Amino acid sequence: MALPCTKELSTMPWHYVEHALSCAKGGFPSIRHNEIRDLTATLLTEVCKDVCIEPELQPVNGEELTGSTANSQEGARLDIAANGVWGGTFERTYFDVRVFNPHAPSNRHTNLQSVYRKHEQIKKRAYEQRIREVEHATFTPLVLSATGGLAREANTFYKRLASMLASKWDHTYSHTLRWLRCRLAFSLLRSSIQAIRGARSSCGHAIRMPMAVDLIISETHLVSL
């Protein structure tokens, strides 16, 4: 169980859910990230060739990467690589996962779709040109929110993955897509529960639920019966 964050409780109370989902103490954001990475890679092995986790990128040798945030470091790694996702059997695609907390103070007063686009652009500025010009492959950022929402490119990818799985398993696309969304949602839920429980102290402070209930409902596609 992680210890409380050392931030002043008056300004950033560690026992609030929104803080628990962002606090890096205890490694819980990494656990959440790895849950999505490993689930995605496992499902890709069902329908793609040469799937690997954390592939090391080739070094940059003479290629000039534009942009101040482009990653040119030697030994850089992305989360997943696989062949045959968007094109032919030998067309390679690299993926990098980001799971952000929509309740974080930096996101709270920004339109959610704008936050998704911001995180996608950060990933693409860092890696897209290098993947295209050095690896001669394509790059897809997988941006998700901790409450279950997907950015545009991640949504397109998981629909594509559901279609490929449905064809292999001889299931309907709609049922496979619902199943896949449930797997993603439960992975995020499981890691979020770990973060919330792990952020408690031995004093047993109460957990205050976030106020943005409408956001959580819309992100998880829940409807009133």
- Describe the largest sheet: 4 strands, mixed
How many beta-strand segments? 4
Walk across the major sheet and give the strand order. Answer: 1-2-3-4
Rg estimate, integer Å: 19 Å
Q: Helical amount among residues, as a percent range?
A: 40-55%
Name the descriptors:
225 residues; alpha+beta; 4-stranded mixed sheet; 7 helices
Textual characterization of the structure:
The model is unreliable at 1-15 and 199-211 (pLDDT under 50). It contains seven helices and four strands. A hairpin with an 8-residue loop joins strand 2 (80-83) and strand 3 (92-100). The protein has one domain. Helix 2 packs across helix 5 (152-169). The chain has a four-stranded mixed sheet. By secondary structure, the protein is an alpha+beta fold. It is globular. The two termini are 37 Å apart.
Tell me briefly what this model is.
The chain has 225 residues and is of the alpha+beta class. The chain has helices spanning 17-20, 28-47, 105-108, 112-135, 152-169, 173-198, 213-219, and strands spanning 49-53, 80-83, 92-100, 138-145. It has one domain.
Architecture blueprint of SSEs:
Blueprint: H1 17-20, H2 28-47, E1 49-53, E2 80-83, E3 92-100, H3 105-108, H4 112-135, E4 138-145, H5 152-169, H6 173-198, H7 213-219
Parallel strand pairs: 3-4
Antiparallel strand pairs: 1-2, 2-3
Helix pairs in contact: 2-5, 2-6, 5-6
